[in-house]
Amino acid sequence: MITIPANPKGDVRRLSLEVRPHVQWAIQHCDALLIAVSGGADSTALAAVIIDHCLRAGCAPHTLTVDHGIRAGSDIEAREVSERMASLGARAQWVSVTVAAEGGPEASARDARRRALVDHARSLGGRVAVFLGHTMDCLLYTSPSPRDRTRSR
């Protein structure tokens, strides 16, 4: 299994320090953690750091990779991403979805991806923290602070 060093450097350190309180909050308050992983560099880095924090805390997070079926071979890519997440220690799965034509391809793909994530989170049962990130710059947008989360209860 691949692991992140105890004291990572550079962007990995910045990302690790940024997500740590969110992961700790989720471990304490939720029954499961689910990470959306596209396979791109940013979502893979985010997933690797979250998986590492979870494993150090004694829990195994879940990952989900969504194959939109828009390109030939995208199912193979989704499976490979899922296998990579499993090699990091996650309970990894991937799913193929059908992308509707309404709203254009990007909006339809986003809606299908969200439905898949919600369905998978529900299948895990209980309270599920869902982590998603498209780029490191949007991490704060997609991962509210623990204080913000408790207000929405």
Task: Provide a descriptive summary of the structure in words.
The protein is an alpha/beta fold and 153 residues long. Strands 3-2-1-4 form a 4-stranded parallel sheet, sandwiched between helices. Helix 1 crosses helix 2. The C terminus is likely disordered.
Estimated share of beta-strand residues:
5-15%
Q: Outline, from the CA principal axes?
A: globular
Order of helices and strands: HEHEHEHEHH
Helix-residue proportion = 40-55%
- Average predicted local confidence, pLDDT: 83
Q: End-to-end span in angstroms?
A: 37 Å
Spatial strand arrangement across the major sheet: 3-2-1-4
How many strands, which pairing sense, and closed or not: the largest β-sheet?
4 strands, parallel
* Helix/strand structural class: alpha/beta
Summarize it:
The chain has 153 residues and is of the alpha/beta class. It has helices at residues 10-29, 41-56, 74-88, 104-124, 139-142, 146-151, and strands at 32-36, 62-67, 91-96, 128-131. β1, α2 (41-56) and β2 form a beta-alpha-beta unit.
